[in-house]
Amino acid sequence: MNYLLEGEETNRLLFRKLVASDFDAWLPFHQNPSSTEHWDGLPQDPYNACKQWFHKAFHRYENGLGGMNALMDKKTGLLVGQCGLLVQTVDAQQELEIGYSILPNYWKKGYASEGAIKCKEYAFKHNLAPSLISIIHIHNIGSQKVAQNNGMVLDKTTTYAHNPVHIFRVSP
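-> C-alpha cells emitted (172 positions)
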C-alpha cells in the first residue's frame, strides 16, 4: 500500500518525501528542547537525534511502513514540518497513525492541523484503514489539540515506547 502523500497539497502545503538534504533544515526541531520535552528515550545530542529521525524515516520508506512527508510551504518553498501516515504497533495491534511534527518557528500557525486533516482525508479516501490513531504523550497538550482539530477523540491511555501516551482515534 502507498501510505505516502507525495505530491498531495493543501491550501498552504505541498507534501513530498523527506530527502537527506532536508537534514540541516530539520535540525532546529531537535535543537529546541520544547520539541521533544515529553518524549523519553531520544538521544540528548540534537545532531544524533536528527540523524536517528532520518534513519527511521528512510527505514519506513524502504519497508512500506509509511512515513513522515516533508511539509513544504507553497509560497516560500521552505520546510515547515513533517506529517504522515505511519504503520505502528500499539498494545500488540497494528494501527495506522497520523504523525506530525512542526519546526518551532512555525508553531501555532495551523500547519500541523492542516497536514493531519489532509492525511486523514487521504487515508479514508484510499481505504487504508478502518480507523486512524495519533499517539500523543499525555503531557503534550499542543499535539492533543491538533488531534481534536482533526476530529479525533481520546480512545485510551497506554504505554508506547516506554512513554505514557493517549491514543486518539477517528473513523470515517
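Helices lie at 23-31, 46-62, 111-125, 141-149.
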